Amino acid sequence: MCMRSFECRDDMDLEALESSHSPAPDNLYEREGCTNRYLPTQGHPEKAELLSPEVKRSQPLLIQSRKWGRLRDEELRPSSLPDIPNPFPELCDSSPILSNTPSGRSPKEGGPHMVKVYSEDGACRSLEVTAGATARNVCDMLVERVHCLSDESWSLIELHPHLGLERCLEDHESVVEVQAMWPAGGDSSFIFRKNFAKYELFRGSPYALFPEDMVGGNLEAQKGLSHSELVQNFLNSGSWPEIQGYLHMKESGRKVWKRFYFFLRRSGLYYSAKGTSKDPRHLQYFADVNESNSYCLTQGKKLYNAPTEFGFCLKPLKMRSGTKGLKILCTEDEQARTCWLTAIRLFKYGAQLYKNYQISRRSPQSWTEPTKQRSASDSTMVPMDFSGCTGRVIENPLEALSVALEEAQSWRKKTTHRYSLPTPCQTTPNSAAIHKTQAWYHGRLSRDETQRLIMQQGMADGVFLVRESTRNAKGFVLSLCHLQKIKHYLILPSEEEGRPYFSMDDGQTKFIDLIQLVEFHQINRGILPCTLKHYCTSVAL
User: Fold this and answer.
1) How far is residue 277 from each of residues 213, 217, 226, 249, 492, measured CA to CA in Å?
2) Where is the SH2 domain (predicted)?
3) Burial class (CB in 10 A: 0-12, 13-18, 19+), 58
4) Which end of the chain has fewer CB atoms within 10 angstroms, the N or the C?
């Protein structure tokens, strides 16, 4: 059959056919990298005969208009191979059928690429970016377009609902390359929101982030150093302490979970087949963190039958879809999960994380942002007493608390003129609703929704929001994150001499409205375990 088809083509007038061929771009079958090459088989003279000079001229040739010129075959394929067109061009790597990028273009190629980004409320905005656009570049673009304040906490979240996975993209990651790895026609997406825990390692205490029982080796020699010196020492040396602890591991292909003692080292993630033994004979290799991305499980119990809700997984970089290659793990609490995920980021990216943090702090501010002033909640500030001729530092915590309470009382008296409050009837229209204009106020939000929102925006100390109480019709609730736990404080309204006020401590500290209450606790801790630092917010794209 092959010889008969080639002989029929001998009678074709190629020159006549070429002259009648209409000008058109390159043949669709002739894509770079898509050439199907066949080699003659040893011991089969009828196949080897195809490569003889007499038969080569009858093989299919690329026919092009004179306007476009002739292709130089030697640039596309070796001259020793026949010019047989690929009968299955849709199976090529550059095919638009298999590629998730427009027109099958490689993510590394130049030219614009379209990226869709969603907000918390489901609104979508399409951005045209270059192939080298990073997650920080896209965040800066969105900050400018929606006219919100710029800071290092704005992030792009990669979401895979069908797998129940999500992760925060690192600022240096290429958005186009990440999007190119998604399965075609899937429900994967980017979410634009804040993540206050992204750089908490460089702002808070590493001893709070990494409990002593999870850190291999002794850090006593480092305890005399300041936080910045400790972090800088680790970054300069390039060696991070070994992280160890118990994790629940899901067996591949089964819904069975087993508990093992894991070790995170530079060479990879291991677990011990015999208790907590570090003997190389007992250590089993689990995953290479450098060749994987780490994700949080959003529906661990529902999709993977996880023993707790604090699950995470390692997804190989080359894995597009399915769950077969996922390395799924589970911790006992949020603090342990945060420790493991942070350690994996450090082992994978090292000093690049600190470089991202420095660049994000130097990012151009939005045109709507006022001149940046020193934060009143800066950890370097100390309580002062200015009642005498000269100021003095208050070292006694009890004395500092009493001074803070006195300041709250005087603050309330000084600011009563702000709303002109001689009678209760005059206070109702203004003070009762002014808090609804604040970004930290979230209205009728349930307790579960509150915890989900705070967890999404990062379990960092001082993340908070204010909402209406679901149990007390006239009350409010201040929800605050501290030490990887979310606590809720009831705010009750009351009256004194006909004037309303709000309090969280049975009237010991009184505030004329919720705004004053929040502003006070952004400076003073009061009855809270820490000051209010970051309020949960969302923007509409």
Assistant:
1) 15, 15, 33, 17, 54
2) 440-536
3) middle
4) N
116 in Cβ contact with 190 (< 8 Å): yes
CATH 2.30.29.30-classified regions of the chain: 202-361
Q: pLDDT tens-digit profile of 204-263?
A: 777 777 777 888 765 555 666 665 666 666 666 666 778 899 999 998 878 899 999 999
Fold classified for 396-535: SHC Adaptor Protein (3.30.505)
Q: Please, which residues bridge with residue 192 across strands?
A: 156
Residue 491 has pLDDT above 50, yes or no: yes
CATH architecture, domain 102-194: Roll (3.10)
pTM listed for this prediction: 0.67
State which fold the 202-361 domain adopts.
PH-domain like (2.30.29)
Query: Which residues of the chain does CATH 3.10.20.90 include?
Result: 102-194
DSSP state of 105: -
From residue 436, give the alpha-carbon distance in Å to each of 121, 297, 488, 515.
19, 33, 19, 10
Which of 487, 525, 456, 484 lies closest to 209 in space, CA to CA?
Answer: 484
> Which of 379, 347, 400 is CA-nearest to residue 226?
379
